Amino acid sequence: MKKVIHSKKCRQMLGIVVAAAVLAGALFFWKSHSSQGNTAKAGAVKPLVAVETIRRQDMFSRIILSGQTVAAAQVDIAPKYAGHITRVAVELGQQVTAGQILVVQDLEDIDLAIAQTTAAIRQAGADSIEIKAAFAADYQKAAADYERNLANYRRYEALYNMGAISRETLDTAKQQMVNAKAALDVLKEQSMPSGVPAVLESKQAALAKAKYGLEALEKQREDRLLRAPRDGIIGYRQVEAGAFVQAGQKLLTVVDNSSSYVDCLVSEQNAAQIRSGMQVMVAIDSLGQEYPGSIIYISPAADAQTRLFTVRLALTLADVAVKSGMFAHAGIAGLLREQTLFVAKTAVTEKNGKQYVFVIDDKNQAEQRLVTTGQRNDETVELLTGIHAGERVAVSNVSRLKPGMAVEVDTHI
């Protein structure tokens, strides 16, 4: 009885296996025929491609200039001399004008020195006048004495010739005349090349020295009054009254935003396409605004480390909203080649190191053409050989194309 039951179970299992095998075969046969049918249908569909008619045109590249805005001037204010600060006349963000006093250093000592030098000048001036008067009096006296003694000598000489006086009397008169002349010569020899006596020249030199000393002190006093070098806004303030500052210590910064620039760095290739005077539109993202501008400077040499060139853009219109340090960018068209053939980059395929394009003929059939490429920009590539002006080149669905394949040209692009 058990053997009969076991035999029935085996037959049932065998039937199930056979039925599953038949079902699997039927399913494989159906999928195979369905796939072949779809493939046949797909092969009948022509690829839809966009084409571009090749013409000779000037080829440009889009050069993006990016950088930060720079104020017309940013001047740091620092003292020339160390000392205490007695007054700070401005606040952070305050508008100032050229020549306005911003910071005052302690002037007490310098004022005392100026007063002392002024008194010395008055003293030197008085001494010069006194010496000049004394010298003039001495000279006049010496000249008069000489003239008198010379006249006496000549009179005594005449009397001696007549035998009226002795030789001793004549010699005495002569000696008096010689002494008077010597005194006059001493005064004459004191005159400098300028004609001024040495004693007076010395006093006048001392007076001039004192005057120069006064000018130096007055200049030092002025240097302790820190003024705005130009119109602008106080963009940095790190000083308070009573503080002691060192010479050269940065206290304030005056920022002149009356005009703005944008400094950019560009590669050697892009620098060769940029010319001074080119007009640009400069976008400042943080303001959401564009400003007209122009290129005013291209560095004559690349930076030794980065090998980049500096380009400066000047904004034509002034705007108080433009602050120094804002990110800005501008785009310009640089000429790569005049009157050349070029096509969209999507049209060019590469295989084994060679470049190809598909030319679409009048019957809308694809012909694979070997080409030589040249200059490139972000969107197009120059075709040096392998293509002629007026031919149509496929620029989309290129990966699906085969040589000789019929295509459908997309006329909606």
Radius of gyration: 52 Å
- What is the number of beta strands? 21
Q: Enumerate how many helices there are, as a single number.
A: 5
Oligomeric nature of the chains: single chain
Q: Given the helix and strand composition, which structural class is it?
A: alpha+beta
Morphology call: elongated
Largest sheet descriptor: 7 strands, antiparallel
Low-confidence stretches: 1-10, 29-43
End-to-end CA span: 83 Å
What proportion of the residues form beta strands (DSSP E)?
Answer: 25-35%
List the domain count as a whole number. Answer: 4
Residue-averaged pLDDT: 86
Order of helices and strands: HEEEEEEHHHEEEEHEEEEEEEEEEE
Domain CusB-like beta-barrel: 264-332
Domain Multidrug resistance protein MdtA-like barrel-sandwich hybrid: 74-256
Coiled coil: 136-220
Pfam family, one: YknX_C
Q: How would you describe this structure in keywords?
A:
413 residues, alpha+beta, OB fold (Dihydrolipoamide Acetyltransferase, E2P), 4 domains, 5 helices, disordered N terminus, RND family efflux transporter, MFP subunit, efflux transmembrane transporter activity, YknX-like_C
Verbal overview:
The chain has 413 residues and is an alpha+beta fold. It has 4 domains: 87 residues, conserved putative lor/sdh protein from methanococcus maripaludis s2 fold, CATH 2.40.420.20; 50 residues, OB fold (Dihydrolipoamide Acetyltransferase, E2P); 113 residues; 70 residues, Efflux pump adaptor protein, beta barrel domain (Elongation Factor Tu (Ef-tu), domain 3, Beta Barrel), CATH 2.40.30.170. Helix content is 36%, strand content 33%. The protein is built from 5 helices and 21 strands. The strands form 4 sheets. Strands 2, 15, 16, 17, 18, 19 and 20 form a 7-stranded antiparallel sheet that branches. A 6-stranded antiparallel β-barrel has the order 3-10-13-12-11-14. Strand 18 and strand 19 form a beta hairpin. The chain is elongated, with a radius of gyration of 52 Å. The N terminus is likely disordered. One of its GO terms (cellular component) is efflux pump complex. Keywords: Coiled coil.
